[in-house]
């Protein structure tokens, strides 16, 4: 299915890549540990791997040549190294949706990732031309 999706995207003269967008549960040490502790309290005895899903996806993408930005690993490393301020959460309640700071981190990471790609500064064949900007005066007329 992934290869079909890539084929459809490329057929539309676009570039296909995957961004691994994690929940806060796997980004923050304390939320991950709380999940593991809760699972063990509920009788789950198997070893739990925090990064297993993104590692599997990374392996698949590498095998088929799909660029992958694993934000989960970047966030974890950023907090561990101090590059990301531990007092600023990327996710609300360290679990759910992105905070404004989280949106900034994602945008910056995506921009840097795109710039690192070999095709970043190369014009694509049959690429779409930039949109023409048209100045529109505001009116009070209903739409």
Can you put this structure into words, describing what you see?
This protein has helices at 2-11, 24-27, 29-41, 52-64, 71-81, 100-116; strands at residues 18-20, 68-70. The protein has 143 residues and is mainly alpha-helical. It has one domain (2-116). It has a two-stranded parallel ribbon. Mean pLDDT is 85; it is low at 128-136.
The biggest beta sheet reads: 2 strands, parallel
State the strand order across the main sheet. 1-2
Looking at how many chains there are and whether they match, the oligomeric state comes to: single chain
Number of helices: 6
Key terms for this structure?
6 helices; 4% strand; mainly alpha; 143 residues; globular; two-stranded parallel sheet; 2 strands
SSE topology sketch:
Elements: H1 2-11, E1 18-20, H2 24-27, H3 29-41, H4 52-64, E2 68-70, H5 71-81, H6 100-116
Parallel strand pairs: 1-2
Write a compact overview of the structure shown.
This protein is mainly α and about 140 residues long. Helix content is about 50%, strand content about 5%. The chain has one domain.
